[in-house]
Amino acid sequence: MWSYFKFEFKQFFSNIKNLAIYFLLTFATLYYVFQIVPNYDPIESVSENEIEARYLTRQEFLDGIEGQDLNGAHPSLLYAIDVFKAINPIDKGRLDALEEGDLTKYAELTRDWYYITNATTYRNELFSYNPKYFINNKGYADEDAFYAYLEQAARYDAYSKADFDLTIDAFEQRTAFQTLERLLKEILPIILFVCVLLLAVDIVTKDRRHSSIIKGIPINDWRKLLVKMIVVFIGSCALLVPLGLGFLVIGFQNSFGHLHLPSPEYAAHLEYLKDGKFEMMTLSQFLSKSAILLFVWIIVIISGAVLLSLIFRQEMVNLFAGLLLIFGENIYFSRKVGNFWDVQNFPTSYIQVGQIISKQRNFYYLNNYLDWGLALQLLVTIVVVIIISMFFITTNKRYKLIK
User: Which of 235, 267, 290 lies closest to 13 in space, CA to CA?
Assistant: First the structure.
């Protein structure tokens, strides 16, 4: 069996297609690190000029109406005056805190700023969120901004109570660990899963090119498949090498941050006005849960590709089925569709790993049942079913792995 493992291992890492995948992932990582990361422009940034501009504009307005008789004034004007009088002292305090370098005080005031601003902006025609939320005319821009403001408020609340040194890079989520957090909530899981699928799609069908050699190896088909899956899993873990390189470069550029940084988790059961809709976990908890779910997904994709290879023996069929699994959520994904469908029962609903851990997907779907634990139960059950199916297929006397 060891000899067969070395044979498969050598074939896998000398396969031109597999080497091309590693090369392209390395190129994409370096492009991201040196082109995208330096130009990263967070919607919610720490901008002294922006805060000052808002403060001065509002203060000029307040100074202009000071001493005027406001009897009979339009209710909207009176409301705006009340809001400006509530927010401007906070913005002045934020400016002073930045000038003094007191980031703890800045975090405390910024937490309050996000709560008050959100309460006075959401579904209010008089005020608007940051226009960046409305790029591409997003239909749910107000909801996304509402979510983002509450999330930012929760982060800054954690910062204001932190027992570690605070930095502007941490506030803007530029550190290496926070960049990884952002990527896990965006495109990284999809990229990893597609790479794993491409690595696994021909692990069985390629044996046709060496049928005489394979038939001469004295182990049964079941063990051969186990070895193949182990080799692909090792190859999938090797995808982390270029990603790790990118992580190190970002760390040296913007600092690594640390694993005690806050990572908010959406909590639908909390009241917005009372609790803020977010609970807090540390970045280490977020990354640990994400890693576990990623690795289980990788096993699902590898074992699924191998099972399909036994049934259909066609790489294109395997590839199509795998892509359907990875991108299948797009077929039914729609904001708030969780009100009508039990999306928590669909494996494809858990592809966006970071959004599952943070429960951002729950907010999108308006479904409270999407959960990390349920995802593990569902995916592990799928793996068990696949493994049992493979065992019965390969131990059937009439079945031949290589015909």
Answer: 235
